[in-house]
Sequence to fold (143 residues):
Amino acid sequence: MRAALEAARGAAQAGEVPVGAVLVQGGRVIVAAGNAPRGLADPTAHAEMRVIREGAALLGRERLEDCDLWVTLEPCAMCAGAIAHARIARLYYGASDPKGGAIEHGPRFFAQPTCHHRPEIYSGIGEGEAAGLLRDFFRDRRG
Fold:
């Protein structure tokens, strides 16, 4: 989670919402990224989407069943869909997102009978620090 939090801090410094993600294979971080929708002019450039795309390209395959995803914030529905399609083995995330999250909030994506792959899910890891980054970012923006 440390690497994901560092990517989130980098995103905040770039003026992006501070969310970071890392893709791990065999206990080794293979890709890390922060949110970048503004910087890339791409509404799909969430941290999770970026590491899934980069990891799939790096490994040369669309299925990442031997990889784990660590992210600082509960993934949204778009990212949950990508996690399912990529067949990510385990999802670890920090802060819950009651407004935009889709794992334990909103659509509860992986609990739907139409979801074809469900990763193991572990929440609340580094939650305090991840939530603090988000709180500080939005407090400073509202100034």
Notes: Residues 72 and 98 are 14 Å apart (CA to CA).
